[in-house]
Amino acid sequence: MASDYVIALGSVSGITLSSGDTMEVLNGGTAISTAILDGGLLTVSWGGAASATQVEAGGVLTVSSGGTASATQVDASGNETVESGAIGIGTTILDGGLLTVSSGGSATSTSIHSGGSAIVESGGSAIFASIDSGGVETVMAGAVTENVSVFGELDVDGAAFFVDVSNGGTLSVGNGGSVNIANVSSGGIETIGAGGSDGGTIVQGGEQDVGGVAIGTEVNDGVQIVKAGGTASFTAIGETEIVEAGGVDVGATVGGGQDVYGSALGTIVNGGLQIDGRQGKINAPPPQARATGAKPGGPR
User: Fold this and answer.
1) Rounded (5°) CA angle 272-276-277
2) R_g over Cα of the chain
3) How far apart are CA 144 and CA 103, in angstroms?
4) Pairwise CA distance, residues 213 & 197, whole Å
5) Which of 153, 128, 88 is closest to 80 using CA atoms?
6) What does the pLDDT read at residue 284?
7) Which sign does the torsion angle of CA 87, 54, 16, 14 carry?
8) Are strands 10-13 and 29-32 parallel, antiparallel or unpaired?
9) End-to-end CA distance of the chain
């Protein structure tokens, strides 16, 4: 027989919700260490709180406006939804688990393990997330994510700020998506698709593939590849940039190596080499200029 619980102005601990069971936590109520099994439903409403909830396969946790859920664990085929005006704090998503942050909802300090997924819908936000290898966070158009550590996969059609990608992690920026201030370390790859944009990324041992727009990238150790249809502007090249056929680079400063098979405009060669793959030419400052910092052509 199904049970229905309503919690207000008090707390309960250790309840298990099985198929058909429901629990609603109202203003002043707290549910602690609830287990939600297949077919069970826990709803946290305005002023209510749930902590240390375990959402198992087929279980559902819904955090409504004004509600808070903290230290939730979402297991395989479990679902947590953070609705408008609600907050999810410290959620752990395991293999097959799903966290959905709806418009107006907010998730902070989320851990996405291998096989786990988080979807941030338009108008939603996710701050301080960690994505393990095999985990995925999807940021839809109109959504925002900030301060993300990526060892798995981060797909951005909305906006992302302060992203660190390393050790096999991938950052994909889709049409209309934007990334501001990312760090792509060894083993990390950022791919900027057509219609996507990036500003202020530092490539430190990783790779940035530009099919959209990248502005102000610093390639300290690694490579930036400008694909056909892509544009890179004001890149500081300390290591390697490759401009493929159909790609465009504008205003790069070359202290490392720039291989050009597309177009390079307004390049400043400052101690590095520019190789024109179309004509087999190598452009570099004359030896005196490299030694003294004088402009090519000598003193004027």
Assistant:
1) 125
2) 25
3) 10
4) 5
5) 88
6) 62
7) negative
8) parallel
9) 93
**Distance from chain centroid for Cα 136:** 9
CB 240 within 8 A of CB 256: yes
Task: Determine contact, residues 138/118, Cβ cutoff 8 Å.
Answer: yes
Question: Residues 235, 257: contact at Cβ < 8 Å?
Answer: no
Summarised one tens digit per residue, pLDDT across range 82-107 is: 999 999 999 999 999 999 999 999 99
CB 135 within 8 A of CB 117: yes
Residue 108: C-alpha distances to residues 8, 60, 74, 142, 225 (Å): 25, 19, 15, 18, 33
- Answering whether pTM is above 0.90, one says yes
**277 or 4, greater pLDDT:** 4
User: Could you tell me the two tokens for 160?
Assistant: 């992302």
Written as six digits, the tokens of 132 are 């393990």
Q: Which helix (H) or strand (E) holds 288?
A: helix 287-292
CB 197 within 8 Å of CB 215: yes
Gap between the Cα atoms of 115 and 98, Å rounded? 9
Contact of 284 with 294, CB cutoff 8 Å:
no
User: Going by DSSP bridges, is the β-strand pair 218-226/35-36 parallel, antiparallel, or unpaired?
Assistant: unpaired
Inter-residue contact 188 to 168 (CB < 8 Å): yes
pLDDT at 296: 36
Q: In the predicted model, is pLDDT for residue 1 greater than 80?
A: no
Q: What CA–CA distance (Å, rounded) separates 236 from 267? A: 10
What tokens were used for 38?
Answer: 């297949």
* Unique residue bearing structure tokens 């629990």: 23
Share of the chain above pLDDT 90, in %: 90
Pairing of strands 263-265, 248-250: parallel
Closest listed residue to residue 88, CA positions, set 288, 96, 73: 73
pLDDT in tens, 196-237: 999 999 999 999 999 999 999 999 999 999 999 999 999 999
> Is the confidence at residue 294, as pLDDT, over 70?
no
Mean pLDDT, rounded, for 256-282: 88
